[in-house]
Design brief:
The protein is α+β, with helices and mostly antiparallel strands. A hairpin with a 2-residue loop joins strand 4 and strand 5. The longest helix has 17 residues, at 595-611. The radius of gyration is 25 Å and the shape is globular.
Length: 652
């Protein structure tokens, strides 16, 4: 199954090693930008440089608008697309609403509910009026015909097809579209998708962290939603795959619905109807499960999952996953978690070289590496997903639900209470400051910035690691994963971090090369790092918390190099961070422009920076900026020659 999915995307095993779901999740959640043919101005500022509340306002306003515009909702799937089933005790979320109205309302406010939807005017987010897009000789057009959305797709060979759009996926970060193929109920992906915060279209393949060779070979095979995306973006999927063109896929619900987490509801409804003494047969409340079983309910989707045997593959292709909430996850799903062994080989598309997950959406893999979870519970509480997150907040206030839905956190869990609910000694401000050596109200005293830093990549941004750990220069040096200190202090070197970790916590550092001791870590990552390190460095330069505590007036030349990166994702992130640092620029930069055009624009941006010397007080060797305010070209070129050019594919 793993290799079959890869070939469906034109990525053979000889080209790249990729997990089963890797290419799938990003298609649902993170495409951004514009096409070669049709340009769209950025009508919203970057979400990465806004507060969480502002991001929520943008995303929910857009989704709420289409939900509230009184358009008639298509209740039944379109004829030639995946259908509903009511097998194995599944009844669908609508059957839960009568008795559980509040829970249904909060679920409906979550992004789980709209991960897959039937395409109609009540679910399609972008305004579409004769949309015409083109990239790498592939053309896509969308138009409304009454209440039906139709796609016309022309492939690079000139073959044209026109089909009804059957499904949408995503509503938080982006929305993608799937059209009928006319072959049983197989659907195929429209080659462009819509980024919600930026309100722009982008070719699907350019949202991946892909080297150009892999990006150019990307293909759009039919059936990918049927047998792959639907694993986690629908409830109780039965792929029913007969061949590449014959699939009678059915689901209990589109989206991640009630029965995904609580199990099939038929017996519960039947027992409630006859006032049985036990009305909860088969129904699971994840918060009441054993801590390990509880987190596995989330881990069924939020983990690197694979099928390793032909028997498993054949069973899935017909019947879908056998896992039910409350069961032991490993009995029916293979969680791709590296073990602590010198002989382990790590899939670098998912894991850092020490086995810590580095791709977003795999939080359960991070949790498995966390000492807060990986213990027997005899000496303290075992941390679970529901220690911090909740699926059904008590408030029915739409504004409260809008704020909650962004991360689905319990009240107070955005701050240190997430940690001090167990580590109570740091509830006292004096104890906290004595531990952090930072002011109590500073970002340096935010537990998560040190112990859950932004070192996982996905959605064209960095996300917090769920493998809770302490900052370690040794780890950064050995495996390349940034540490919390240098993700905040962008203008400091790894040597600076080593000195303070030794002074404050008596943590010894291995001997560091001269560059690592003297030059700021962010610059070294931008110049020497591999693709994911460059992407994280580009993101960090746009992170408001880091901008507050770091000088950044030296960063434009290095963002200029990232604007010329051969990975589109790196260019896109660098462009976003640049806009957060600069006043509106006269120079127009487009990360999807031709190489000649974008390189020329990047050089012009740096030249503009050079002419504006009065705003650049920071100079010196740590920043590779000489006393005249000019980049040290010789030293920069030497570091560029040391760049890690290994090809990295980060699929989500």
């Amino acid at each position: 199954m793993r290799l079959r999915f890869l070939r469906n995307y034109g990525l053979s095993p000889a080209k790249i090693s990729e997990p089963v779901c890797a290419v799938v999740f990003l298609l649902i959640t993170c495409v951004v930008g514009c096409s070669d043919r049709t340009r769209h101005n950025r009508t919203e500022p970057s979400s990465e440089n806004k507060s969480d509340q502002e991001v929520v306002q943008i995303a929910l306003r857009t989704r709420d608008t289409v939900r509230a515009d009184a358009s008639k909702k298509q209740e039944e799937p379109w004829p030639h697309s995946p259908q509903y089933h009511r097998n194995d005790g599944y009844v669908g979320s609508a059957a839960c609403k009568e008795c559980h109205a509040d829970e249904f309302s909060s679920w409906h406010s979550s992004y789980h509910s709209s991960m897959t939807q039937i395409a109609d005017r009540s679910t399609v987010i972008p305004a579409i009026q004769g949309l015409d897009l083109e990239y790498q000789s592939r053309r896509g057009q969308l138009e409304w015909q009454g209440d039906e959305l139709w796609a016309t797709v022309t492939d690079p060979e000139g073959n044209e097809s026109k089909s009804r759009v059957a499904l949408t996926t995503g509503s938080h970060h982006a929305q993608a579209f799937w059209y009928e193929t006319g072959e049983s109920n197989v659907v195929q992906m429209f080659p462009f998708a819509y980024r919600i915060a930026e309100q722009r279209w982008i070719p699907v393949q350019t949202a991946f962290l892909l080297p150009p060779r892999v990006e150019q070979s990307f293909s759009f095979a039919p059936g990918v939603w049927n047998h792959s995306c639907s694993q986690c973006h629908a409830t109780s999927t039965k792929p029913a795959v007969s061949s590449a063109t014959e699939m009678q896929t059915s689901v209990a619900d589109f989206g991640i619905a009630c029965e995904s987490c609580h199990g099939p509801g038929a017996n519960h409804i039947e027992a409630a109807g006859r006032n049985a003494e036990n009305i909860n047969p088969g129904i699971v409340n994840p918060e009441l499960l054993h801590p390990k079983r509880s987190s596995e309910v989330c881990g069924q989707c939020h983990a690197a999952i694979s099928l390793s045997t032909q028997e498993q593959t054949d069973d899935w292709l017909q019947h879908g996953w056998r896992y039910r909430p409350g069961e032991e996850l490993e009995k029916s799903k293979n969680v791709g978690q590296p073990k602590d062994s010198e002989n382990d080989s790590f899939d670098t598309s998912i894991f850092w070289n020490d086995g810590v997950v580095r791709v977003s959406g795999r939080e359960f893999n991070g949790l498995l590496k966390s000492p807060c979870y990986d213990h027997d519970g005899q000496h303290g509480q075992i941390m679970t997903c529901t220690s911090c997150h909740e699926m059904h907040p008590e408030s029915s206030n739409p504004n409260d639900l809008a704020s909650w839905s962004h991360h689905q956190l319990k009240p107070g869990m955005r701050g240190n209470a997430a940690c001090t609910q167990c580590h109570r000694e740091y509830q006292d401000e004096k104890s906290l400051v004595a531990h952090t050596h930072h002011l109590a109200d500073s970002s340096g005293s935010d537990c998560m910035n040190c112990h859950m830093p932004y070192t996982t990549y996905g959605l064209l941004k960095a996300s917090r690691s769920h493998a809770i750990e302490s900052p370690s220069v040794a780890t950064t040096l050995e495996v390349g994963r940034p540490n919390g200190c240098n993700m905040c202090h962008l203008d400091k070197s790894l040597g600076w971090t080593a000195d303070y970790l030794k002074q404050w916590y008596d943590i010894s550092s291995p001997e560091l090369p001269e560059d690592e001791r003297e030059i700021c870590f962010t610059i070294l990552s931008a110049l020497k790092g591999n693709a994911i390190q460059r992407a994280l460095a580009a993101w960090a330069l746009g992170w408001p918390e880091a901008q507050k505590v770091s000088t950044t007036d030296w960063s434009i030349p290095f963002l200029g190099f990232l604007l010329q990166d051969n990975y589109h994702a790196v260019r896109f992130i660098a462009d976003r961070s640049l806009r957060s640092l600069s006043e509106p620029m006269e120079i127009q930069y487009d990360s999807l422009a031709t190489k000649a055009d974008r390189d020329q624009a990047a050089r012009a941006i740096v030249q503009q920076w050079l002419r504006n010397k009065e705003n650049r007080p920071t100079t010196g060797e740590p920043y590779l900026i000489n006393p005249l305010g000019q980049p040290m070209i010789g030293a920069i070129n030497q570091l560029l020659k040391q760049r890690d050019t290994q090809e990295i594919v980060i699929g989500e």
